[in-house]
Amino acid sequence: MSGEKILIVEDDTTIARFVELELAHAGYDVAKVADGKAAIVAIEDREPDLMILDLMLPEMDGLEVARSVRNSKQAFPILMLTAKAETQDVVTGFDAGADDYLRKPFEIPELLSRVRALLKRTEHERSGPSFKASGVEVDPNSRRATVGGELIDLTAKEFDLLFYLVTNAGRVISRDEILEAVWGSQHATDSNVIEVFVCHLRNKIGDRDNTIIQTIRGVGYFFARG
After folding, report:
1. E strands within 37-171?
2. What is the reported pLDDT for 82?
3. Residues 12, 97: Cα–Cα separation, whole Å
4. Which of 62, 143, 144, 187 is most buried as measured by Cβ atoms within 10 A of its Cβ?
5. Cα-Cα-Cα-Cα dihedral sign, residues 101, 104, 105, 108
6. Residue 109, preceding bond cis, omega within 30 degrees?
7. Helix (H, G, I), strand (E, B) or coil at 74
8. What's the CA gap between 80 and 82, in Å, rounded?
9. Banded model confidence at residue 190, pLDDT cuts 50, 70, 90
10. pLDDT tens sequence across 213-225
């Protein structure tokens, strides 16, 4: 029994109760609330290890909740539930601070798989050393990244992608590898999402001529060791 604390933020009472029972059966310590404002209060009270967050909520939507969490520098993973699956909707969710997203309707085994993966990754990051390549340093303990010693502002998913690229510097990484490692093996994310996030990272690390994050046509990307 794992005992990690999970907060469900979902206004559909049937979905919320079903997910609550399944997570409790899997050994998690589960609480649920039905709107965004109640979520903010519950986060302060429970200090969850992970939050399952619906996008469409009364009082305060999921994007606002995610932004509030990240603005307060809380680093627990957020799994966002959404009926929207267009590339821009996905990017917007990640930009707000989500670590992963799951389309409705979903199967419980997939939900549990995502939860386990996010919790495992968080545990690994808290105990890992920092890594550096081409003047970019990423610290998984603090989830901070610097370029030439200067802190750069990254969303949760931007950090995840940069961390994966830096720790795999010096080899070509396929798009499928990136999708599996950063977005999850069962993820149906369009590869266009990767391109959008790579563009964001290039801008933020000052890679104006694309020599640090190099596109390998038809394959994926190469992060230079420097």
Report:
1. 50-54, 78-82, 100-103, 131-133, 136-139, 144-147, 150-152
2. 85
3. 22
4. 62
5. positive
6. no
7. coil
8. 6
9. low
10. 999 999 999 999 9
Sole residue written with tokens 């798989």: 113
Q: Which two tokens stand for residue 10?
A: 């979902």
Q: What are the beta bridge partners of residue 29?
A: 5
Dmax over CA atoms of the chain, in Å, equals 52
Which residue ranges make up each domain of the chain?
5-126, 128-223
Instruction: Quote the CA–CA distance of 98 and 63 in Å, as a whole number.
Output: 8
Helix (H) or strand (E) holding 216: strand 213-216
- How far is the C-alpha of 74 from the C-alpha of 80, rounded, in Å? 16
Q: Would you say residue 188 has pLDDT above 70?
A: no
* Cβ atoms within 10 Å, residue 141: 12
Where residue 140 falls among pLDDT bands split at 50, 70, 90?
A: confident
pLDDT at 128: 64
CATH class of the domain defined by 128-223: mainly alpha
Query: What does the angle CA 69 – CA 72 – CA 73 come to, to the nearest 5 degrees?
Result: 90
Q: Which of 20, 62, 14, 70 is nearest to 37 (CA)?
A: 62
The CATH T-level fold of domain 5-126 is Rossmann fold (3.40.50)
List Cβ neighbours of 18 (8 Å cut-off, separation of 6 or more).
Answer: 108
Count, residues in the chain: 226
Position 7 scores a pLDDT of 98
Q: Kind and range of the H or E element at 125?
A: helix 108-127
Residues 6+ apart with CB under 8 A from 2: 26, 27, 28, 119
